[in-house]
Amino acid sequence: MFISEKEIEVRYAETDQMGVVYHANYVIWLEIGRTKLIQDLGFTYAGLESDGYISPVTNVNINYKSSVKYGETVVVRTWIETHGKLRTTYGYEIVHEDGTVASTATSEHVIVKKDNFRPVSLSKISPDWDAKYREIAKVID
Asked: What keywords were assigned to this record (predicted)?
């Protein structure tokens, strides 16, 4: 299984009054991880958008296991959990420097035409990208 990794230095602005990362910032980190995975595979989300497509989130699930605090560095690990005709589910771990898991997550996405939001298969707009996802996905729908 292919896993992309992206290091994140926790900024003060990402924390609450207790110095703990505010929960909504994890969603931003997931996006950073997903973008890095796509780049590591040789594709770009910006390229998808310039071709007239977007990939909205249809579901996100985050399990918080331990706090991340200001001044820490974490690693976002990202992979393809499942990939089907219309949906892709990304899997994530956010890991402390000592290797313990701070959180696990998944996000589900579809690709739609930007102008009408009609779903479209990745295989129709980028067969190479679709083939790469099928190659590395844990499960193919």
From this structure: Hydrolase
